[in-house]
């Protein structure tokens, strides 16, 4: 996508135009995703903490089986939403989509995986990678830059 301003055009989707999604829209969409995830995964989280209560802190393994399952399952679900639907449920609520930064097309599995891994890079230094999106010309966080993605919303 070679836009000089914040408007994008995706030739695959009729004559719709897009603009880069702002920091606060993305932030609220992420909060919604977190809330939905909490509701869906609450039984697993509850079971996990009940199991942990049976061990002293010295006996507790670094990563329990339920933690590993929820981490991998969470990543698979998020990446699948990006690849198949262009957005997670929270982003869908706000009319946002994750797209390839160069072509405007849906992201590939590889881009989804890179973007997900990029979340950790974005969070590791005081969440500066997420905050970066508020100041970047294309509204990209570090995870977007790593995966060559943008988050857009339809304006027409």
From TrEMBL:
Residues 20-147 form the RDD domain. Pfam families: RDD. GO terms for cellular component: plasma membrane. Keywords: Cell membrane, Membrane, Transmembrane, Transmembrane helix. Its main location: membrane. The keyword GTP-binding does not apply. The chain crosses the membrane at residues 27-50, 62-83, 116-135. The keyword Transmembrane helix applies. It is a multi-pass membrane protein. InterPro entries: Pra-immunoreactive, RDD. It is found in: Cell membrane. Signal peptide: none annotated. This is Transporter. It comes from Moraxella pluranimalium. The lineage of its organism: Bacteria, Pseudomonadati, Pseudomonadota, Gammaproteobacteria, Moraxellales.
């Amino acid at each position: 996508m070679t836009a000089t301003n914040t408007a994008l055009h995706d030739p695959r989707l009729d004559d719709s135009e897009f603009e880069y999604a702002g920091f606060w829209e993305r932030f609220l969409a992420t909060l919604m995703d977190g809330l939905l995830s909490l509701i869906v995964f609450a039984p697993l989280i509850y079971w996990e903490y009940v199991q942990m209560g049976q061990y002293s802190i010295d006996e507790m393994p670094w990563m329990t089986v339920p933690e590993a399952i929820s981490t991998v399952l969470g990543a698979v679900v998020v990446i699948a939403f990006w690849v198949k639907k262009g957005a997670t449920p929270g982003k869908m609520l706000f009319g946002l989509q994750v797209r390839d930064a160069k072509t405007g097309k849906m992201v590939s599995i590889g881009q989804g995986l890179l973007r997900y891994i990029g979340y950790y890079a974005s969070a590791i230094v005081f969440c500066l990678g997420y905050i970066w999106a508020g100041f970047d010309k294309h509204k990209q966080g570090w995870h977007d830059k790593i995966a060559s993605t943008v988050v857009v919303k339809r304006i027409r």
